[in-house]
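Annex B. Sample input.
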Amino acid sequence: MPEIVILAIESSCDDTSAAVCVDGKVLSNLTANQKVHELYGGVVPELASREHTKNIIPVVAEALKKAGVSKKDINAVAFTRGPGLMGSLLVGGIFAKSYAQAQQIPLIDVNHMQAHVLAHFIDDPKPKFPFLCLTVSGGHTQIVLVKDYLDMEVIGTTIDDAAGEAFDKTAKILNLPYPGGPLIDKYAQLGNPNAYKFSEPQIERLDFSFSGLKTNILYFLQKEIKNNPAFVDENMHDICASVQQTIISILMKKIKKAAEETGISEIAIAGGVSANSELRKQLKAFGEKYKWNTYIPDFQYCTDNAGMIAITAHHKYLKNDFCAIDIPILARMSF
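Annex B, continued. Sample output.
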């Protein structure tokens, strides 16, 4: 059987990534980060688009070089169609479309959130179907019932803000530099997670809500700072630990409920927040307590990366699931 060589592009937000996958094995996965956003405390869409145009050609060239393949070896090119920032998606999408057209090879569109789930099939151990995947990022918080590689159902989602946004907005309130989520994780390891109590919204079914928690954190800090202007500096570790514990408690209670309702004991996490050390720790602890088989992706496949786009495209290629060259980019895109 001939080799299936796929070049994949990911550009949904502020990371420009390219990967090469050969017969379902990711041989290279390179990402160029954009430091410019640190000056503004968050991603600036227009600047992100401009940085993608600068980074995409050298990143692709390096990914091909590291994988040891040339452009004539590529059987298909894949790209993130959505969801994400429209300008950023357009840069990656137009590049992929042009590449496919120039090389006269198939084009494969990939759903960014579906790819986060399938990142679990890059390395061993791999989950068995069906499994539940708690997919947590800056823009999404979902519980996905995964029946097969390309057969997934969202059985729980956020009704307002995502868990990753709650981390990022808290970091901004605390005047931590962007990106603040990893810093909260770092400081939390030195603090008391039970120092302060924050509200956990009571949302029905398997859905999530984090807008009320963000407001609760904001009002709490405003009150404490009014009484003691040095409150944040003096209690940074405990604040971070308490906020982190609350967010992760919300996540873990919902995935436990999903496991109970479905009877599924194959449990995975994915998305940028799956890099959080406490979430990874608690998933393992829940797995031991409730006899789950748990799966956590390697750090490089947690945040936005083209490796996950490549592995998804591989399974779409096996089903001849290609797209037209004029397929539209979608900033908002469901499974």
